[in-house]
Design goal:
234 residues, mainly alpha, two-stranded antiparallel ribbon, 9 helices, three-stranded antiparallel sheet, elongated, single chain, 5 strands
Length: 234
């Protein structure tokens, strides 16, 4: 049996056979979110400290969606008030928050996402559009002129290291070593010029046999340039 489950059961069994004085909290042995009821056999009186510990233990031996629910409950349990203190050190907080963040992310994947397969109505889209137009009505993006701190810049740089390049409008595309070498040769090791034989275009440092300097337009480009309306627009 899971050691955390054993510890949980020990606290519950000890609490069944005693009478506490002073401040107590009622605890559902099987949490209601996991199907537990409100009958007396499923409720036990615990001290505030025991109650908190039990909810941390529940995050240790539950699995799947039940664990996600217990992580959420543990986050709520960290709050203190005039009647109870909660011991929540930095390491415990980091562990619970990290696991809760992972669980929250998993709940938004695919069909688990509440907006999966849905679309905003035309009315909603119109409202969103009007809000953005009002926001940018002065012709200035709200982030223009905003200066990031050196710490923020360092964090952004760190988060982007090793991420796929989005250059050339190709998200997720990484340059191969062959492409990098080709670009380096193209842009740093000599002057390259376009050459044409009237049909094909080649970029090279020297004129190939049968070619002349320049580029030949494609039929679609020639059609555009023969259109007077297109010339007026450009």
């Amino acid at each position: 049996m899971n050691k955390y489950k054993i510890c949980y059961d020990n606290i519950i069994n000890r609490a069944r056979n005693r009478v506490l004085e002073g401040y107590t909290e009622l605890h559902h042995i099987i949490p209601r979110s996991m199907g537990g009821g409100d009958d007396n056999s499923n409720i036990v009186a615990l001290t505030a400290r025991e109650h908190f510990i039990c909810h941390i233990l529940l995050t240790k031996f539950t699995v799947g969606q039940d664990r996600n629910k217990m992580l959420h409950a543990a986050i709520i349990m960290k709050s203190a008030n005039n009647y109870q203190d909660r011991y929540f050190n930095s390491r415990l907080y980091e562990t619970v928050r990290k696991n809760y963040a992972i669980a929250a992310s998993e709940r938004q994947i695919g069909e688990l996402n509440h907006f999966y397969g849905k679309r905003h109505s035309e009315e909603t889209r119109a409202k969103m559009s009007a809000t953005k137009k009002e926001l940018y009505s002065n012709g200035k993006h709200p982030h223009i002129g905003m200066k990031r701190s050196e710490e923020a810049k360092a964090n952004i740089s760190k988060s982007r290291k090793g991420q796929p390049s989005t250059k050339k409008g190709k998200p997720g595309k990484l340059w191969t070593n062959e492409q990098r070498t080709k670009m380096e040769t193209l842009y740093t090791k000599g002057t390259y010029t376009w050459w044409t034989d009237g049909t094909n275009n080649i970029r090279a440092s020297e004129c190939p046999s049968g070619y002349r300097k320049g580029r030949t337009m494609s039929p679609s480009h020639l059609a555009k340039f023969s259109n007077s309306d297109y010339l007026l627009k450009t």
